[in-house]
Design a protein that fits this description.
- The protein is 27% helix and 45% strand.
- By secondary structure, it is an alpha+beta fold.
- The chain has a single domain, classed as Alpha-D-Glucose-1,6-Bisphosphate, Chain A, domain 4 (2-Layer Sandwich).
């Protein structure tokens, strides 16, 4: 069963600018706390099916995950899926117009693959909630400082 967290932030920025920041994969490390790097394998604009490489550092440990862009709707949605030996992680970022600027919705689902990962589900739930909220708040601050 997946561990799911959803967080919404309203940002004083246009939806186009908010999506452009989310779609700029190498900049993810600026707002996602455990991210060391996120890069697309290959050239050209981001598109569904593109392969990704994600490096992170969390809890004093470093790791890597392979990923792919599952769905990309320019200006509205970037949904990526990452996997390693322990988890499948779905990261669905959505942007919509809001009277105050843009509504950003972060939806994260982590599905444990092994028994050991399942045993850590209570801790993962706490961590994913904090990480998702921190990432959304950091992205909001970055957007509002750069694009105001």
């Amino acid at each position: 069963m997946p561990i799911r967290c959803e967080h919404v932030e309203i940002v004083k920025s246009s939806p186009e600018r908010a999506f452009a920041m989310i779609d700029d994969l190498p900049r993810t490390a600026e707002w996602l706390p455990p991210c060391v790097s996120l890069n697309k394998v290959g050239e050209g604009p981001n598109a569904s099916g593109d392969m990704l490489e994600y490096a992170y550092k969390q809890g004093g440990q470093s790791g890597r995950m392979k990923g792919r862009i599952a769905e990309r709707v320019p200006g509205e949605k970037l949904h990526c899926i990452y996997e390693d030996g322990m988890f499948t992680v779905s990261v669905d970022m959505r942007v919509a117009p809001d009277p105050a600027g843009a509504k950003m919705t972060h939806i994260i689902e982590m599905t444990p693959k092994k028994l050991i990962a399942k045993l850590f589900t209570p801790l993962v739930k706490i961590g994913i909630r904090k990480q998702t909220t921190d990432a959304a708040v950091n992205l909001k601050k970055l957007l509002e400082s750069e694009f105001s």
